[in-house]
Amino acid sequence: MKFKRTLLAMAVIAGTFGLTGCDEETNNITVTHPNSGDTLPPVEEGDKPVCPPTGDEDCDDKPSTEKPVIDMGVHVPVELDGMDVTRYVNPFIGTGNLGNTYPGATTPNGMVQLSPNNGSNGWEYISGYYYHDARTSGFSHTHLSGAGAGDLNDILVMPINSRSDFMINEGSATLNLEASHFKHQDEQATAGYYKVDLLDYDITAELTASDRVGVHRYTFPRDQKSEIIVNTGFKLNWDYTSDSFIRWDKDNNRLIGHRLSDGWAASQKEYFVMEFDQPIKNVRFAYYDKETKQYVNAPADFTEIGSIKGSQTYDAINDRDVFGKYQYARAYVEFDTEKQGLTVEAKLALSSTAIGNDGTNKAPLSGAFLNLTEVANKNFDQVRLDATNEWEALLGKVKVEGDEAYKQTFYTAMYHAFLGQTTHSDLDGKYYRAFQGRNAYPKGRPSWGKEAPLVDDIRLADANNDGVADFTRYDTFSLWDTYRNVQPLASILTPNALADVVLSMLSYAEEEFTPLDAEGNAGQPRKGRLPEWTFKGNETGMMMGMHSTPVIYDVLAKGILDARMTELGFSQTEQDDIKARLINAMVTDARSGSAVSWISEYEKNGWVPAQLHDVEADAYGKHSPFKDSWTASYSLEYSMNDWMIAKSIALVFGEEDSRYTEFADRSNNWQAQFDFGGEPNTPWKGWFKARDYNGQFIDKNWVDPITDGTAGKNWRPDMFNWAFSESNGWQYFFSVQHDMHGLKDLMTQVDRKSNPDAKDGALFAARLDEYWSTYPDRNAGDNQFPVFNTGNVGQHVQGNEPDLHVPYLYNYVGQPWKTQAAIAASTNVCYDNTADGICGNDDFGTLSAWFVFRALGFYPVNAGSIYEIGTPMFETASIDVGNGQSFNVTAKNVSRDNIFIQNATFNGKAFNRTYLTHDEIMYGGDLVFTMGDTPNKLWGAAADSTPPDTGIGEFLHADSLPAGAR
C-alpha cells in the first residue's frame, strides 16, 4: 500500500519556507533569489505544495484519516509458530526500484544470506533479486543488501526435474542457467524464511538459515529425474569466479567444495559443506568449456571437479591452484522420485577459512564442518523457528502501537538495519585475514591470474592477544552510509555486537600483509588501515572518509566498549592497551603516508585540492573533468573524522595529549572550503566550493594552475557539481554534523557583511528555508546526478545519505516545528509498503535506520551521546534498553495529520529541549508528547533548548565570528 504523498506536512513546508503564493505573517524570514543569470529554475506548477492552515481552518490536501490495514500486496502473509512482531516484517519492501534489498532468509548480522536470484546482470540486480523480474535461477548463500555495487551471490542452488528445459542466458555465457518462472502470489517471506513455487517444475522451494548455515527444503513431485544443482561458477556484475571445486563424498551423503572469487572483493574465499537428509542417487558434474563457450558434462566417473591439490583435475605440472580446464564447476545431485514425490532438506555451511576437519580423524572440527554444527540434529522447521526467535528477540526490543501500515514499514526497516555488519569468523573465532585491496595493489586488485593462493593467512578473533578467541569478527562495513544511523541504532539495541564491530575494525588495521606490485611481486610487509567499505575480509576503497572513526568514538563515548571488555574478562591493563591501539590506528590513518585517499594533501593544505586531468583519463575517469571528483566532500568529511579522533583521544588520554590539540584544530578545516566572497559579480557568497592547489575557489572563470585548463561551466549550488559526492552544493552544504553551531555562526558573519543588524542564525535558517523550497537543476549540460538522487523535497534527497540529517537542523535556530514538518515530508516521499517502497539504495539499512529513528521521535545528527528531537510516529513506543529498564515514548493525539509537538514532559516534568542524551535513553524513562495539526512555535524555541555546541579547537575564521560565538 502506497502512502498518500500530498500530506499536511508538504503543505506546511510550503508555507513554512515561503513559496510563491504563500504568505505567513509569523514567518519573518524573506528568501530571495540572487538577481543574476544564474537564478534557480522555477518550480513547476504541479510540484508546488499548497499553503498550510495558519489557524484552525482545514487544508485541501489533508489525507483520509482512515487507518490502512496490513497489506502484503499479492503475497500471502506468513503465519508461522513463534511470530509476534516478525509478522510485520515484509522483506519484499525495497526489492524493486532502487532499494536493492533481497527477500531471502538470514539471521541478525548473519554470515549466510540465503536468497533467490533472478539470473540476470545489471544494476537493478545488485542484490541478486529484482522484484519486477518473475524468474528464478536458484538460491545463493551471500547477498549485499541495498548496495550500489555488485558482488557475492556465492554458491547457487537450484532444484529441477525433467518437466522443463527453461534456461536464462543473459549478459554472460557463464550465466547459462536452468531457471523457472514464478508468481508473486506464490511467494512468501518474513524474517528468517522464504518460500516460492517454481512453476516450470512444480517444485516448492523453502529457505531458512542459522548464522553460518543456509537450510533448503525442496518438495519435488513424482518425476523420472529430479536434481539439485550446486553451482560454484555463478557470478553477477563485478564478480569473477577465479577458482571452484566440488567433491561428492559418497560415504557421508554430502558435497564439499569452495568458490574463490575476484571482483569488487578482490580476494574472496567461500568454503562449504553441504549435507542432505535423503540418499543421493547420483551426482554428475559439468564445467564451462572455454573453447566452445558452453557448459559440458564432465566424464561420468568423476566424483569431484575443479582445482585443489590432490584432486582429479589439479594442475600437477605447476603444482598450484590455477584457473584450469574444469572451472565454473557445477554438480547435479540426483534424488529418486520415479515412484513418488520427495521432500529433500539440505544444509550448506560456509567458512572463509577452510572446508575444515570433519572430526573423523580425531582432530577437532574446523572450518565449514565446525560451522555446520550450528544446525546439528535440527530439521528445517527447527532451524526456521530458531531464526524466527532470533529476530523476535531483536525486533521485539522495540514495541510500537499505532498506525498498522507504519508498523509494517517500521519493523521491516528495523529488520533491514541489521542485515549488515555480517559475521565473518567461524564458531572457533577463526577467519580469513583482511585483504587490503587497493592498499596492496596499485590498481585496487591483483592482475588477472595473480590471485592470492588457496592457502592463506588465517587469523583468530583475539583482541587481548592471549591466544584465545574472545569476540565475533564482523565484516560488511558500508561506513560512508551506516555511520549516520545504523551503528547508533545498534548502540541502543545491540551494544555488545557493536563493541565487537569496533574490535573487528581494530583487527583490520593491525593485520599485516605483504603488498604486491602490478606484476605480483612482493614488497615489504605493512599494516592495514581501519575499514572504509569492506566485506568478506576485503577492503574495496569505495566512497571516502575515515568513517570507522565515528563508530569508534560512539562506543567510547557511550561506555559500550568498556562494558564489553569487562564482560569478556579483560584486565584493566588489557582494556587500556586496546583503547590505545584504537587511537593509534585512527591517528595513523589520518596522517600522511597512510593508504587513505588524499590524506597527505589534506594534512598539508587543510583541504583536498582539485585539479583537472593532467594525463588522459581511463574509461572510468572520463566521466569527470577532474582528476578526483569529490574534493570538497573529502575535506568536509575528513574534518568531521578529525573531530572524532580528537574526542576519542580526549576520552582515552585527556585533552592534555598533544594529539588532541592537533586534531581538534584540524576539525575546523571544513571552514577552508567555505567561500566568503565568491567570484566578482556573482551572487554565490557563503558556500562550500572546491579549491585548487593555489587555494583559489573553483567558480566561473576558474583556471586550473596545474594544467591551465578550465572546468567549462559556471558554479551554482543547484547544479550537479563534481566537488561533491553524488550531489550538489545544496545537498552537501550542511555536512558539518560535528560543528553545526560553528556553521551557523560563520553564516551569521557572512550575513552581517551586507546587513550589520542581521540576527544570529538568520542566514542559516533562511538557507534551510530555501533548501526545502527550491529544486535541483537537472537540465544542466553535464547533469550527472545519480539515479538514486531521489526522494526529493526541494533540494533535499531522502534517497541518498549526505543530507539525511538536515531535517533536524531547524532545532539549532529555535524552529523545531519546521523540523517536524520537514521530517514528515521526507518520510512521505521515500517510504511505503511496496516493493518500490524505499526511494534509494538502502545501503545496508541506512535509509531504513533513518525511518526507525524518525518513527521513535529522535535522531543522531552527530556521533556521540546526543539525539535530536524530531516528531514521533506511533502512539506508544517502548524500547528495552537492558537491565530491566525501558525508554518509553508516548505521542498523545498523534496521527498522519498531527505531526507537530504541542508540549512534552520527561519523567513527569516539563521538557522543552530539542535533544536527548544517550544516558537518558539507556537509564530508562517516559517521554510524553502531545501532538497537534498546527505548529506550536514556542515549544523548543528558547535559546537554551537547542542542541549543545560541540565545536572544539581553534576556529579558522575566529576573527569573523559574531560576539558570543566560540
From TrEMBL:
One GO cellular component, as annotated: cytosol
Chain residue ranges for the region called Disordered: 32-68
Pfam family, one: Glyco_hydro_92
Biological processes, Gene Ontology terms: glycoprotein catabolic process
Keywords tagged on the record: Hydrolase, Signal
GO MF annotation, one: carbohydrate binding
Glycosyl hydrolase family 92 N-terminal domain ranges (all copies): 88-351
Domain Glycosyl hydrolase family as annotated: residue spans: 370-933
N-terminal signal peptide: 1-21
Annotated protein name in UniProt: Glycosyl hydrolase family 92
Organism: Photobacterium malacitanum
